[in-house]
Amino acid sequence: MQRSIEAGYWSIDWPGVIRRDMSFSSKAFCEISLILTDMEDLTLSSAETLLRSGPIQRGRFRVSQGNTALSASVTASSPVKFLKVFFTEETARAISSTIHSQSIEIEVEDPMLNADDPFLAALGREIVENMNDPRPANRAFAEEAAILMSGRVITHYSTARHFGSVPIRSLDSHADLDMAIQLMRDHIGDGIDLRMLADAVDMSTFAFVRTFKKRYGVSPIRYHRLMRLNRAKTLLSTTTLPIGRISSSLGFSEPSHFVAAFRKATGLTPLAYRRNRH
Question: Which pTM does this prediction carry?
Answer without folding.
Answer: 0.77
